[in-house]
Write a structure and sequence with these properties.
Structural class: mainly alpha
Radius of gyration: 36 Å
Distance between the termini: 52 Å
Length: about 1000
Amino acid sequence: MDEVQTIEAAVLSFYRGGSEQQKETHKWLQQVQNSPHAWSFCWELMQLNKSSEVQFFGSITLNSKLRNDWAEVPKEAHHELKQKLLETIVVFGNGPKIVLNRLCISLGLFIVHMLRHPTVIEEVTSMFLNQQLGTLSKVTQIEILMCVLEGIPEEVKNVRTQIPRALVCEELNRNAEFVMQTVVTYLNEKLNHTVEPQDMNGMINAAKCTGSWVLHGNVGLDERDNLIQTLLKAIHYCYWKEPKDDGCLLPDDNELAEMALKSLASIISSYSTQNSKYSVTIIRFMKMFLDVLVPILDAEYKECNDNENLALMMYALFISTLEGFSSAIFDGIVAESDAHEVYTRTVDMLIKCTDKPGTYPVDEMCSTYAMEFWYLLQEDVLSMDTSEHRKRCHEAIKPVYAHVVKVLVRKSQLPTDSSMHKWNDDDLEAFRCYRQDIGDTLLSCHDVLNDMMLDVLSEALDESIMYLSYEQQLPSSSDSWTLLEATIHAFCSIAQKIEYAEHPQIVKLLKVLNEIPYEKYHDKLFGMALETVGAYSEWFGDNPKYLPSAIALLVKGLNSTRASQATLGLKDLTSECQKEVVPYAVPLLDACRSTLQEGRLKSSEMIRLMYTVGNILSVIPYENIIVYLDAMVSPCFAELQVHVQNNDTSEPAKARVLLRLEMISKLFSSLNINKTANAGDTGDKVAGQKLCPPPSAVTGPGPVQPILLILQKTMDLLKGLCTLWIHDETVIDTLCKALQQALTTLMDDIKPLLNEMCCLVQSILNTNCVVSAADIAGNFILMFYKDQDCRQMMVQLFTAIMEYNFAQMQLNSDKLSRIADLIETFYAFNTRISKKIPICYSEVQVDCMKLMGYATKCMMLPETAPMKKSVAFITMFVKESPKHTVMMNVVLAQGENILRSTFLCIGGTALRTQVEVLADIFLALNIRYPTEFVQWMKLLEIPNFPTAFVSANEKEQFMRKVIKERVNKRLVQDHVRKFAAVCRNIIEYEGK
């Protein structure tokens, strides 16, 4: 069996074999493609008697060789290669399409390599236009030509060519107008006469071609009239050329119209950085867009239309034009000019887009596109320079935004039960995001309307209540709640903007929320009411007399199907109004205790409710805290005690242990009497009881923090839990997070228990160094290392962390990626130590050489997080090292190794998107060790290091630039990014 037959068999095996066989075959075929012999056998594979799979492999092999291995083609063979290409294109001119497309790309690649010849594009174009390709029809030759021309600019970005990039760009710019003229002439010729079905592929390729070449040519936007008119003419032709029985465009017509719209968008976006230069031109083009496209949008203004994607692209074109040239168009808000007409027509069109008939996304997909415009318009107007002009524009857009608010309320209505048959999970998720976008857009509306926004929403509230009352009188009114829910959602969305004043509209809203008979309607209505009350927590802090109604509603929600929103609302309310809830603390605690005891809440709701409990306990008399802690927290520890006594490590037991620990953790995060010591005066009342003076008002030491009391009583239990679950990372992690919350709350107050807690954490570090264990140990060390009474324990903790992690890295030395999370945590911890208390490395017996050695290995991991943390550690260690002899000796010994690893990362180990972080290492070494840095940088003099693609001259330039720059981090990042591209043989192509 000869070579071609072997390859042919391998290709068929790849396409028809199993996954394991495919993997090996693919690897072998790639090696074959890379061999110099591929220039020969690729033509033999592209014979008509071969299978389509084999023909396709031959075509992609030719692609690969032209893109990557042009240097293997002798100059004298260029003409022969071109002839072979053209002959093969003739052979496949009528298909298979998949092979022909690859051959067109190959011809484009050949042209890119031959751009030294100034007429190569004109020659190839002339050959096709004059039908010099054998038996192929004129239509086919034009179609192929447009495909070839369209691909040339794209291939320039990826091809490895021997021509200097500057020359390539220059040649593209020089040929751009010739290509554009050729394409536009062809399109106009077809559109001005009868278009035959067989012409459509050529016209589609021509429309694509305009979009790919528009970045070239150094032609101003004001010189693009003919091109814009031609593309709009193509869209108009495709839509209106003949009546459509089902309303749906034919596939070819639809594709041509879409390609024309994409090219229009490319044209506009390519000039968007020259906003002010083309203000008159863009107004003219916008009028053209409005004249041609709005009638189509009006015809498609209905639910479930068949040309929705075309409408989407039209709206997208308008939005991208507005984004790029907003100042030119918004100058027409109050001006008497063509710009004013364009502005008003655009606003009318986008209001209709926002109010597209049907429900997003099951009946329509367009309305989401206009959201961006309403943000853009308000931002531009409110940031105008001239105050008088801004004031006039502001007043002019207010009625528009008032109307938009009512439209958005209507569009945000939830799907009803009767319509759910049309929805799937993806639709529901898309609508959730859409509703969030509406909420964000309402915030923009508020920025324009200010207090008028509440008037508009108040009117909407009245209308929704009237609608609800009217619908209730009808036989089927089960879905009448959606408009009221949407109106409440609008109030909820702008809550963050409402402050201080006792707005009558908000008072009316609260009254309505407390009067709605929720049992008659879907529970989603009640859920939104609860969410809204929580959203206005900050407002209640300024208007506490309305707290009773809010608390009553939220407490009612605890015993409903919407307990999730109720617990969220209580969490927000007791956080924002901690002082103000004092008079209602006891009833609130009783409600929370009752709800927890009844056991109806989900785990997440119980955990959240404990945060509320902590907030309330923090403001009641100290003796009451102890009573309620005993009643509400003891059950958590009692259940944990049972599991420990029974040695129960079953899955159900684990779930309960995690729940109880998370509840305790939440309590620890919010229960803090020191934070609220000045929250109220001594005359405040708690449900009729006189408050004790706050601890700060008492002479002598204040009361012991309740969390410390809890820990003192339960430390043995926590140790037992740790012993029982020591090999379960989830339980240990949750336990450590609870202890971390306690530390965060108590701070220095934790000292009475510090020794026991450190022993507990150290026992974890010695066995199962979970992330949160390292975090809390790091916090202990940072807080107490300088305290002489605690020094010995901190040294033990520090040593335990280092030894455990060194052991794990040694154990996984061949595959450090297995412990990527541990490495991330370990070097994040050491970065903090290097920055805050670098003296540790001198005073504790730690192998700093090993620490740095592993860091240089970890920075080369493919995982982003450990790579970045390792780089951050090395950078910080280097910066702090001159002040500490031990650290300085490590850097001096490892400096060359650090740079070696850094260069390897730049050369290809690190992702290209991550290489810029390596600039920090260069800067740190250059600032702290300038003389040694110059010597270490000479690593680059090693041949083929870090890769074979970078020349000695390029390495010399990089060294000089980096050594010179000690301050400008952005500049060093830029040097590193460009050097990485060179090392990886990637051309950083910059368009116009």
